[in-house]
Amino acid sequence: MPFAHPGSPWGSLKRRSAAVGLALAIGLVPLALSPVATARAAPPAPTTTTDRRAPLVDQEDQRLLQIRSVLAALLQSGGPTAVAAKQPMIFGSSHGKTLVLPSLNTDQPYTMADLVKYGGKYVRRLPDGSFLLGIHVFLADGAKLVLQSGARPLTIRMGSLPTAFSSIVSLGGEITVKGTAQAPVRILSWNPRTGKPDTDSLDGRAYIRAVGGEFHMSYGAVADLGFWSGRTGGVALTGTDRPSSESKHLTKEQRHENKEKREQQNKNRGGGGGGPGDIEVEQPGGTATHVPAADLVTGSIDHSTFGGNAYGLFVSGSNQTQITNIKVTNSLVDGLVMHRFTKNATIENVSVTGSRHDGFVLARATEKIRITDSAAINNGHNGFTVNGTALAEGPSASGESLETFGDSSINNSRAENNGHYGIELLGGDKLSVQNCKVVGGDMGIVVRSAATRVQISGNRLSKQVRQGISLRDGVRDASLAGNSISGPRTGIYLRDSSGKLTGNVIKGADAHAVTLLGDSDGTEVRSNTFEGSGTSAISTSRSHGDVTKKDNNTDHWTDTATLWMKARRYLKPMNFIWGCVFIVVIVSMIRARGSRQRFARFGIHPYALQRPVEARETWRLPHRGDRPRTRQRPAEAQARGTGGDLRSTTVTVPGIPLPGRRQDPNGGQPNGGQPNGGRPNGGRPNGGQPNGGQPQRGPQPQRGGQPQRGPQPQRGQQPQRGPQPQRGQQPQRGAPQRGAHGPQPQQGPPPGGPPRQGFPQPERGGV
Question: Where in this protein does the record put region Disordered (predicted)?
Answer without folding.
Answer: 238-289, 529-551, 618-767
